[in-house]
Prior knowledge:
mainly alpha; 62% helix
Amino acid sequence: MAALPAIVTGFLFQHAIQGWCPPLPVLRRMGFRTAEEINQERYALKALRGDFDAKGGNRLDAALRAVGVRRGP
C-alpha cells in the first residue's frame, strides 16, 4: 500500500529538482495547463474586456500586448 505514495513522492522530488517528471506529458495531454499559461489567458481576457485600453485603444493590440506579442509596423 505504501508503494503509490512512495512513487508520487519520487515524482514530486524529481519535479522539484529537474522541473520535469514522467507523468507530465500525460497530464499535459489531459488538458492540465501551467500557471504561466493560465496567467496569459487571464491577462488576454482582461485585455479583451477592456481593462488595459487607453482612450481610443485597440482591443486586439491590448490583448496581444497582455500576452507578450507585438504586431509588426
